[in-house]
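Methods — Computational structure assignment.
A single polypeptide chain was analysed. Its primary sequence is given first, followed by the predicted tertiary structure written as structure tokens.
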Amino acid sequence: MKKMKSNLDERQELKLLKIQHYGCWLAFWGLLADILIQMILGNMVFKNFIGEVIVFMSLVIYLVVASLKEGIWDRKYKPNLKTNLLFSTIGALVEGIVFFIISYRDYQNLKGSIGIMILIFFMMEIVCMILFTVAGKIYKKRVHQLEDSNEE
């Protein structure tokens, strides 16, 4: 396939990359918010928001796989226990709160809803820690592979 010549100069290319960067993250957080709001408002029929879930998960998988393939983790954070714990806790807390709201909305039982929130929090904390740890190991292995190939 023939590669087409760009009509943009370097400054315009950089601006376009920045626009695409912000557009990607706007779509990511917008889809996540849309899914969570639909869950909270009671639209629990999965077929009603499966399109958003498919697009969101495709975006998540693409960003994770592409970043790991290129040996990129984050601009500010390193893949270590402290970072993994921080982001696992944030994700688990958000998920726990969402399920607390859903449970309380459906059953009007405060103690049961708090129990659900705590259960979901700990389950998600463990799942997220495992996923972040595995991704961190893959990232470190990939960085070593890229560094070894550059030295040769």
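Note: The helical segments are 10-41, 50-69, 81-107, 110-151.
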